[in-house]
Each structure stands twice: as C-alpha cells, then as structure tokens.
Amino acid sequence: MKNQVLYKELAKHYDLVYHWKDYKKEADKIKKLISRYKKSDGKELLDVACGTGHHLSFFKNSFSCTGIDINNKMLKIAKKNAKKVVFRRANMINFSLNKKFDVILCLFSSIGYVKTYLNLKRTINNFARHLKQGGIVIIEPWFSKPKFKAGMPGMTTYDSKYIKIARLNDSKVKNNISILDMHYLIAEKNKGIKHFADRHELGLFDIKKTFNIMENFGFETKFLRGGLMKDRGIFIGIKSYLLS
Question: CATH number of the domain that 34 lies in?
Fold first, then answer.
C-alpha cells in the first residue's frame, strides 16, 4: 500500500466518487449465492475491507454482521451507513477476532491490496480459520494480469450544486503488480479547488493459482465468471473440512 488518500483524507468523498455503484443490486446477488452454496446453519457474516459499509446496510437485517477495515476514517463513515453493525479496525492478512462466521465477504476487489501471493496465502488461510464448517467465503477479485489494461487514462466524475469531483487515473504494470496513479480535482462551494494525488498498488493474481490456494486451505472452490462487475468474476469457497 502506498498513499491511499482516497481512504484517508478523501474518505468523506468516497461514496460520491463511487456514486454509480449499486450496492443493493450486488447485495441481492450475494444473498442468492449464500442461499445456494452455504451449508452451515448460522447467520454470522463478516465483511472484510468493508469500506463505508454500504453492502452491510443491506445484509444487517438478514445476518448478524461484523465489518473490518484497515482505515479508521472509512470505518467512521461505515458506522453511520450501517447502524447496529459491529465494526473493528483490522488488516485482512492477520486479523484475529476470536470468532467463527458462516459467511465471509471480501468485495470490490479489495483482495488485490494484499499484493503478493505470500500475503494472499496468509489471507485465505485467515479466512479459513474464521469460517465455520460448511461456511462460505465470497471473494470478488481484482483483475488477472491478462485482463488488466494499463496505459490509457480513465476518468470518473461527480457533479452537484455543492461539490464537483474529477478523477483521472493512469496505470502501469510492474512484475505482478498493477500501479494506479490517481489525480483528483475537488471543487467545493465557497472553498475553491483542491488537487490530490494518490497511488494504489494491487496484485494481479492468476485465477487458477488463486483457485489452488483456496483448495489447499480446505475450500471446495468455484469461480463464477458472471460476477458483480464486468471482467472480474467471483470466487466461491465452501469450507469442506477442518484445518489442523
């Protein structure tokens, strides 16, 4: 991880940057996957890298929910967006909650931030340790190396009477890491225009290697190409046996 201004100084604008994201529609898809694949009887759900908590706002009435994130400012917003949910500050690689869950979610490609295969193994192992027998983990991956398109900048905008946001990002690949350099212009009413530069580094994990890692840690694994977002797919893992 590098700057990640988006999750810190700009956390208050995060939901505006991603105003187009349909959390309810995604949550409905995930509920169907849980209903189809989960074999445990309980209703304990953990959202890893929960961000501003919008997915949890659509799960909290059906599950007993916990959310973890590494960024305090994101958690502060999540507590407002998803009331009556337990939130903890924790790193997905090494969190320890002394509790097991029926469902573990890691969405919006957050898994890419672990960057290396060593950390991916640690993270998947950690998910397995926190999951009940027959429980389900759902991971929305970042792009694999062949799918990632580096080079030409992409742009995101948000426009209202009180605030205008423009984000232009450039990207490149170094070894198995995608590097995204993002530049934000934010104009708030009566506050002028501010510029923020940000860098995000995410691992480009191979689908087959990720699949094998999940299998090695006790998951009956499926990869569904029709995921929540275009070209990313989704991993489903059912904990099929107890780990020593």
Answer: 3.40.50.150
